[in-house]
Design a protein that fits this description.
The structure holds 2 protein chains of 2 kinds. By secondary structure, chain A is α/β, with parallel strands linked by helices. Chain A has helices at 11-19, 25-39, 51-66, 108-115, 158-165, 182-188, 222-232, 250-254, 283-298, 314-329, 348-359, 362-375, 381-401, 427-432, 438-443, 472-485; strands spanning 46-49, 77-81, 119-124, 144-145, 148-152, 171-176, 191-194, 214-219, 269-273, 302-306, 407-411, 447-454, 460-467. Chain B has a domain at 5-43. The chains are: A alpha/beta, B mainly alpha.
Chain lengths: 500, 95
């Protein structure tokens, strides 16, 4: 074959191949299912793969294709982070607590993607309850990085990122509370975007920190991400924070022709915050980011310094708020209505305590305890309320910045993927790695990471682009222009160049 | 402000978690390091700043007070650890 094999083709090319009957959806699903079977034992990207269900989805899609009733994603396989509830299918959140939980309903995003005719390949591994930055806290064991299996995939949506990077799925859905889409996208060398808070319904996404949680998507490129994102957004009355606004076709938006093809980003101003290039940023990451910014300038964009002075406090602010909300959200896991219940207990309270301590891993329990502390009598004002006030200051910094620029560029993470286990004994050290991603969640802004280089160990480096509210089109379009002029997004780990 | 083991035990009680006797010290130390990080928040004067609880800051959406859900009790209880006659079973709470 002269063109890319189907497992490494852009979604738009898969669409054409399906419509022109070069391949059926069943064949395409089988191709990816076979790849998962052949390669996932080395990555641990998936928790649940249901071949029969996937093939049933694919047969239904083939019937729709035969009737010419197709949308952009009809017959396209994808994977879901195991935070999305899928009816009749195990939904674990990578926790022993939910290791027996067969969801009785679909998340809203899953409903939309089913209606679009997608094929569910399976549920991907992640940090337990989405709490982590490396996908190592999973009850099902750590996810490994496709570029080097001795290194982490990033997290918490590490399984979705690794699956797409290894071409075990063309696209995948994830969630991002403090960087959990953007950082694993950077670590695995793919493109990932987290939507504006409120754009994708949180209904049926197992809650971590409700005022920060937002879904996102992974793809090899901005154009693949645009197709998936377009299909997941939309108002849902069942999420009280869902925004009632017209949906957008991001895929069409990024394909809009430029009046100046040589300098397609003419007129775009990219703000570069000094605070995101200070101590702690790895030299190789800094160099790759600066090169990418030079590329953006070559495409016509201008860059200017901006200030986000309060962003330095984003980690403690984000973790206080996230842990507080988690301690409340996770109180639903009581061993009564669903999930794990201890085998032996003395009374009701003992049953709660034992079920929860057996069901949750160490990091989840730490965050529940810390969250309980910051909400407890005597400490609420000093921690939780203070964090909410600083959240406003951080958000106002962004508002001021977007008066001077269209997008903000920064590293996604200060370092590349670290070796498995390297930070496991020091949770706080791991939290600090979220320094560049957490401010975006606090403000509720959309953020994207795209590959822009490699370190000397051959591990990918990600550039983060942050946009104003509802600027997903602009984020994806800028990335698309960058990717049309560069080939970082086309680099593949060996596993993704190998046929099953 | 380091925590005592008694304070950790109190938090665990509030959170309905049981910390095994052998791991109390380790849990306390890790929580202490988290609180050292969180205490950085005290370094900023936020007098007069309104707390922000939510990115969109929209008023809560209201809807008609009408039944919108169907009764799916049997489906939901099918995944319960213990249910009987439409009820969730828990250990006896009243003597």
């Amino acid at each position: 074959m002269t063109s890319a094999p189907f497992f490494d083709a852009p979604v738009s090319a898969l669409r054409r191949a399906l419509d022109e009957k070069d391949i059926s959806s069943v064949e395409l699903a089988s191709l990816f299912l076979d790849r998962i079977e052949a390669f996932d034992s080395g990555l641990n990207a998936f928790i649940t793969v249901d071949r029969e269900r996937a093939l049933a989805d694919a047969r239904a899609a083939d019937e729709r294709i035969a009737r010419k009733g197709t949308g952009a994603l009809t017959g396209i396989p994808l994977a879901y982070k195991d935070v999305f509830c899928t009816e009749g299918m195990l939904t674990t959140c990578a926790s022993k607590m939910l290791s027996n939980f067969v969801s009785p309903y679909d998340a809203h995003a899953v409903t939309l993607l089913k209606q679009a005719g997608t094929v569910n390949l399976g549920k991907t591994n992640m940090d337990e309850c989405a709490m982590g930055s490396s996908s190592e806290t999973s009850y099902y064991g750590p996810v490994k990085n496709p570029w080097n299996p001795a290194h982490v995939s990033g997290g918490s949506s590490g399984g979705s990122a690794a699956a797409v990077a290894a071409r075990l799925a063309p696209i995948a859905a994830g969630s991002d509370t403090g960087g959990s889409v953007r950082q694993p996208a950077a670590f695995c060398g793919i493109t990932g975007i987290k939507a504006t808070y409120g754009l994708i319904s949180r209904f049926g996404m197992i809650a971590y920190a409700s005022s920060l949680d937002q879904a996102g998507v992974f793809g090899a490129s901005a154009s693949d991400c645009a197709l998936l994102l377009s299909a997941m957004t939309g108002f849902d009355p069942r999420d009280s924070t869902s925004l009632d606004r017209p949906t957008e076709n991001y895929a069409a938006a990024i394909e809009a022709p430029s009046p100046n093809p040589a300098r397609p980003l003419d007129g775009l101003t990219i703000g570069v915050p000094d605070e995101f290039f200070s101590e702690g940023l790895g030299d190789e990451t800094r160099a790759a980011i600066e090169q990418a910014l030079a590329q953006y300038r070559a495409l016509g964009a201008s860059t200017r310094k901006i200030a986000l002075p309060n962003a330095r406090l984003a980690i403690p602010v984000c973790y206080v708020i996230a842990m507080a909300e988690a301690s409340s959200n996770l109180s639903r896991f009581d061993g009564v209505r669903y999930g794990h219940r201890a085998a032996e207990y003395a009374d009701l309270v003992d049953m709660y305590c034992k079920s929860r301590s057996e069901g949750f891993g160490a990091e989840v329990q730490r965050r529940i305890l810390a969250g309980t502390f910051v909400l407890s009598h005597g400490y609420y004002d000093a921690y939780y309320l203070q964090a909410q006030k600083l959240r406003r200051l951080i958000t106002e910094d962004f508002k001021r910045a977007f008066a001077e620029c269209d997008l903000i560029a920064a590293p996604t993470a200060p370092v590349t993927a670290w070796p498995l286990g390297a930070m496991s004994d020091d949770p706080v050290q791991m939290y600090l790695a979220d320094i560049y991603t957490t401010p975006v969640n606090l403000a509720g802004l959309p953020g994207l990471s795209h590959p822009c280089g490699f370190d000397t160990a051959g591990l990918p480096i990600g550039l983060q682009l942050i946009g104003d509210y509802f600027s997903e089109s602009r984020l994806l379009a800028a990335t698309h222009r960058f990717q049309q002029a560069t080939d970082w997004h086309l680099r593949r780990p060996a596993i993704a160049r190998t046929s099953a | 402000m380091p925590l005592s083991n008694e304070e950790v035990a109190r938090l665990a009680r509030l959170a309905r978690l049981s910390i095994p006797d052998g791991s109390a010290d380790a849990t306390r130390k890790q929580l202490d390091s988290i609180f050292v990080l969180m205490t950085q928040l005290q370094s900023v004067d936020t007098t007069g700043i309104e707390p922000m609880s939510h990115p969109q800051e929209l008023p809560a959406r209201l809807r008609e007070d009408a039944v919108t859900e169907t009764n799916r009790r049997a489906t939901f209880q099918a995944i319960a650890p213990q249910a009987e006659a439409g009820l969730y079973l828990v250990p006896k709470v009243i003597e």
